[in-house]
Each structure stands twice: as C-alpha cells, then as structure tokens.
Design brief:
By secondary structure, this protein is of the alpha/beta class. The chain has 2 domains: 89 residues, 2-Layer Sandwich (GMP Synthetase, Chain A, domain 3); 176 residues, Rossmann fold, CATH 3.40.50. The strands form 3 sheets. The protein has a 7-stranded mixed β-sheet. Strands 1-2-3-4 form a 4-stranded mixed β-sheet. The protein has a two-stranded antiparallel sheet with strand order 5-6. The longest helix has 13 residues. Bound molecules: S-adenosylmethionine.
C-alpha cells in the first residue's frame, strides 16, 4: 500500500516530501467501513488532507483518516486522534480471527497489531478454564478465548465506560454473553468483590500492571497461570518483570515457575512490550 500511496501522490506534492509519507498505517474496521490511523512526520503538515484523500481513493472501505496527535496517555490508554478527512463518525465493526468488535478508536484503546497475541493467548487457554481478564478494553481477549473454547468462562474488568459498553455489546455480537461477564470499574476495587479463584489471570496493561499484582495474585488457583505484561528495555527483557512477579507471589506464600517468555511487540528501538507467564505453586 505504501509504495502505491507514494506513486498515487507523485506529481501532487514535492518528491522530497513523498519520501517521508508513512510507509504503513493501522486500519481498524471491516471491508464495509474502516478508518486509517497515521503518524504524520514533521514536514507533511500542509499535505495531510491530500494524503488522506489519496488513501480513501485507493482503499474504498476507508471512510475516515485520523492522525495520531498525542502519545497514549491517562488511565484509559487512549490518544488524541485528529480527523484529517472523511466521516466524523469513526465507530467501526472490526473483524479479526472469526470475531467482531464494535469500537471507536477515538474513545477506547484498541490495536489491530495485537491480533497475533490475542490468538496466542486463545490457543494457550485450556478447555474448561475460568479466566479473569483485567484491563479488558472492548473485550478482544475474553471474547477471542470464549469463541475458541465452548466451555471457557471469563470475567472482564474495565475502567473506561466507553470500552466497557462496547465490551457488553461485543459479547452479544459474538454470542458469548452467557460465558463472558463484563464488569465496569477499577480492577483494584472490583477484584475485592470477586468470590472465586481463577485458572488464569490476564494483565494486559504493560505500563502499570505491576501496580495491581497484589490484587491479582491472591485470586489465582494453585497451579493457575498469570499472563503478565510489562514494558521492558531491550537489554533486559524479562528481568524486572520476573522480579516484580516473584516478590508478590512469595509474599503471598506462593512459589512461582515461569513457563513462558514472549516478546509481544516493539515500542521503540530500545523498548519492548513483553509477556511472562507465571505459574503459581503453594509452598
Ligand atoms: C492497554 S489497554 C488494553 C485493552 C484490551 N485488553 C485490549 O487488548 O485491547 C489497557 C486497558 O486498561 C484499562 N484500565 C486502566 N486502568 C484500569 C484499572 N485500574 N481498572 C480497570 N481497567 C483499567 C484502560 O481503560 C484500557 O482500556
């Protein structure tokens, strides 16, 4: 797409600027309606609309083009997205691995780049598991695992009311409402009200999941697995995550075995999003 986009633009803007037109961008949505999300480098300010219109001309399902206007920030991990061209209604139905997710990227966290990680987790889940998904967003992890395993049950806790409302709608759209229970609220407080233990707990909040280990670990069954996400420097991918997890397991009287280490995605040349899977053992 990027090469064609550049050739589509040739003649309408200076060649030196065409060379800095983004090589790739995210597309969220379906074949019927999608939005493109781009990071425009400095220098393209006066040409963003032209580029956005070229994208919509070339890929007919893209009805809106949004520019990243901030880093991900705040508790909801959303970013400012500026409408450059197209429809101001940016709500879409995103299709992935046999699941559908309704969402508006301007109000919730969602990354189409993480489909592989969702698929990896869904295949790691075993039939019959009882799963707690903290920081569940619009529901991709619990829905993906419940769709794949008919007898898996999941509790999904999310703080952003927009994301929670989409999750409620998405569990119905995917016909898993009888097995996925979305709960609106702060993991720290909601977790205290849960009355059972879990075979697996997911903590997909790389910037800050460690602050909630003290509420997560006591909810794990003996032999249960914690899927813990963390931002890590490239020269020590798993050390800090292992130390943080071990400390909380041990202080709760549990032993820990690390059963998997995964590089999920690269954030910058020096930082990665990683996952470590920690199995609990009573000592
Ligand atoms: C990195 S996003 C992941 C969302 C989702 N799991 C996904 O993969 O698309 C983290 C999510 O955690 C939510 N969140 C942050 N702090 C929270 C808290 N204390 N309790 C519940 N949810 C929280 C944010 O609103 C955001 O939707």
């Amino acid at each position: 797409m990027s090469r064609e986009l550049r050739s589509e633009l040739r003649g309408s803007m200076p060649d030196c600027l065409i060379d800095i037109v983004p090589r790739s961008f995210d597309v969220v949505g379906s074949k019927q309606k999608a939005v493109a999300i781009l990071e425009f480098p400095e220098g393209l300010e006066g040409h963003r609309k032209l580029i956005a219109e070229a994208i919509m001309r070339m890929q007919k399902n893209i009805v809106s083009v949004l520019a990243k206007a901030s880093a991900r920030e705040g508790e909801f991990r959303t970013r400012e997205l500026e409408l450059i061209a197209g429809d101001p209604d940016t709500e879409v139905l995103h299709k992935e691995s046999g699941c559908v997710y309704r969402l508006d990227p301007r109000t919730v966290y969602f990354s189409p780049r993480e489909s592989m990680e969702r698929a990896r987790i869904a295949s790691a889940v075993k039939d019959g598991e009882e799963v707690l998904v903290m920081f569940s967003g619009v529901g991709p992890f619990p829905i993906c695992m419940a769709k794949r395993h008919e007898d898996v049950r999941a509790t999904a806790i999310e703080l952003n009311p927009h994301a929670h409302n989409y999750c409620v709608e998405n569990v119905h759209l995917n016909r898993v409402a009888d097995r996925v229970e979305p709960i609106l609220g702060d993991v720290r407080f909601v977790s205290r009200r849960l009355d059972r233990l879990y075979d697996r707990i997911l903590m997909p909040l790389p910037k800050g999941a460690y602050k909630f280990l003290d509420v997560a670990v006591p909810l794990l069954k003996d032999g249960g697995v914690l899927n813990f996400y963390h931002w890590a420097p490239a020269d020590d991918l798993y050390g800090e995550a292992e130390r943080l997890v071990t400390k909380v397991f041990n202080s709760g009287g549990l032993g820990v075995e690390f059963v998997d280490h995964v590089r999920v995605s690269q954030y910058s040349p020096r930082y990665w999003k990683v996952r470590i899977d920690a199995k609990a053992h009573s000592t």
